Amino acid sequence: MSEDRNTQVGAEPRTGGAVTAGPGAFVLETLLPRSGVPVRLGVQSWGHLSPQRENAVLICHYYTGTTRAHRATPDDAPGWWEGLIGPGRAIDTDRYYVVCMNTPSNVQALDPQVITSGPDTLDPAGIPWGERFPAWNFADLHAAQRDLLHFLGAARWHAVIGPSFGECRRSSGRPAHPTWPPASPPS
């Protein structure tokens, strides 16, 4: 846990909506570093974190995507990267602890399964942020992803991958952060 950024994990639903958290779902509560605004970001995980904590794979979703990259249970509808994530697949959940975290201001914010902070959520005084919610950039996303990594107790990601906007996030973070792995997929 990154104490200097007041990161914590909670399981409460976001204000104004019910959340049905499935297996591996949790909430990261942290601050946007440039503005200091508190945010809650939903995280979905699959697989198991090894005792050495070296097998964490971060999936960065596409612009209008959510944490639903893979189904939470066998009875769920397929996720948006279902063909790539799972036992024996390219992102093997028998080998890797796979996590996908929502972005701030996720465009799917009205979906009760999406946990995000943005203009439609309440500020600390209980008033909707609206246009006062600060603009954020990749540096803010990378800080939240580092906070997630620190919460997991891992020193670095084994791999960071994603399609479209997710790839932009992955590639923009690699040169700047030692927590980012080399530019190669899981082996």
Give a written overview of the molecule.
The protein has 187 residues and is α/β, with parallel strands linked by helices. Helix content is 13%, strand content 17%. It is built from two helices and six strands, in the order βββββαβα. The chain has helices spanning 138-152, 165-173, and strands spanning 8-10, 25-31, 38-46, 56-59, 97-101, 159-161. It has a six-stranded mixed sheet. The protein is globular. The relative contact order is 0.21. The model is unreliable at 1-21 (pLDDT under 50).
Main structural class = alpha/beta
Mean pLDDT: 78
The percentage helix is 10-25%
* Number of distinct helices: 2
Q: What overall geometry do the principal axes of the alpha carbons give?
A: globular
Indicate the radius of gyration in whole angstroms.
16 Å
Question: Within the largest sheet, what's the order of strands?
Answer: 1-2-3-5-4-6
In whole angstroms, the N-to-C terminal distance is 28 Å
Total beta-strand segments: 6
Keywords:
single chain; 2 helices; six-stranded mixed sheet; alpha/beta; 187 residues
SSE layout and pairings?
Layout: E1 8-10, E2 25-31, E3 38-46, E4 56-59, E5 97-101, H1 138-152, E6 159-161, H2 165-173
Parallel strand pairs: 4-5, 4-6
Antiparallel strand pairs: 1-2, 2-3, 3-5
